[in-house]
Amino acid sequence: MLRSLSISSIFAVVTLAVFPAYAQDVAAGEKTFKKCVACHDIGADAKNKVGPALTGVIGRTAGTYAGFKYGSDLVAAGEKGLVWTEEKLAEYLEDPKQFLRDYLGDTGASTKMSFKLKEETARADVAAFLAAQHEATNAPAPSDTAGEVAKVEEPAMSVEDVIAAQEFSEAFLSDPANVEAGKEIWFAQCTHCHGFKAYPGKAPKLKPAKYKPTFVFKRVYKGFKKMPAWKDTYSVDEIRQIVAYVKSPEFSP
After folding, report:
1. pLDDT tops 70 at residue 145
2. How far apart are CA 49 and CA 39, in angstroms?
3. Alpha-carbon gap, residue 42 to 127, rounded angstroms
4. Which of 89, 110, 188, 209 to pair with 12, CA 20 to 30 A apart?
5. From the CB of residue 71, how many other CB atoms can be counted at a distance below 10 Å?
6. What are phi and psi of 59, to 5 degrees?
């Protein structure tokens, strides 16, 4: 009996050692990754932005994605043998600068990436999402079947048509549910550039009292200069909720 319990305990310890307690909620990771898309692109046609494209990052040697100019310390980490795994990415996301300092044994090491994701579960979810994208990108394309009915796609509205179609009633703008939903997105995403800690240099300080709701929607949906077009990340309804928060009395960057 005691021997059986002992073996079971050992098995449990070994299992935990082989399979780390990282969350595997890919859907949650995709949602959290929205915080990253201002700087990083992902997908089969991903391009380098402020940060390197993250397609295929799992299994990649650090500092080696073609066409992106990395900081010297991240390149040095790659030369030392750093290869991105889910676990390593999750560690890096907690504090990129400290991660490199620990890895290189250099208290002066630094990185261009200032973003930190402190919540352990969120970091693991993002790593799982990146791993899932890597697998999807490298999966063989499904073959067509003879009996498959071709999908008929309705023509999409143009960017300008979507913007022109927006109307904001007082009821919508003052709805607490819309304001709260917009606030959640604002603090998850927009404060990286527009928050008070981002001044000066990141983005101009906002003066929402001077903006019409349709103007705010246009800027968020279409993007402007260095600001990305958030239409590729958030739905029209979500962007409308951002507008509701920005125009609300409780708005605070």
Report:
1. no
2. 6
3. 13
4. 89
5. 16
6. 90, -5
Q: How far apart (Å, rounded) are the C-alpha atoms in residues 95 and 91?
A: 7
CATH of segment(s) 159-246: 1.10.760.10
The dihedral region occupied by 182, where left means phi > 0, alpha psi between -120 and 50, and beta the remainder, is alpha
Number of H helices, E strands in the chain: 12, 0
As beta bridge partners, residue 62 has: none
CB neighbourhood size of 158 (10 A) = 9
pLDDT tens per residue, range 69-78: 888 999 999 9
Q: Phi and psi of 83, rounded to 5°? A: -120, 135
pLDDT reported for residue 43 = 84
Burial, 123: exposed, middle or buried (Cβ in 10 Å; 0-12, 13-18, 19+)?
A: buried
Give the integer Cα–Cα distance in Å for 23 and 121. Answer: 6
235 alpha carbon, distance to own chain's centre: 15
Q: Looking at the structure, give the CATH architecture of the domain made up of residues 20-138.
A: Orthogonal Bundle (1.10)
Q: For the chain, where do the domains classified as CATH 1.10.760.10 start and end?
A: 20-138, 159-246
**Residue 34's pLDDT band (cuts 50, 70, 90):** confident
The span from the CA of 55 to the CA of 49, in Å, is 13
d(CA 90, CA 149): 42
Total residues belonging to the chain: 253
Task: State pTM to two decimals.
Answer: 0.55
Task: State how far the alpha carbon of 71 is from the alpha carbons of 98, 103, 129, in Å.
Answer: 15, 15, 25
What amino acid is encoded at 12 in this protein? A
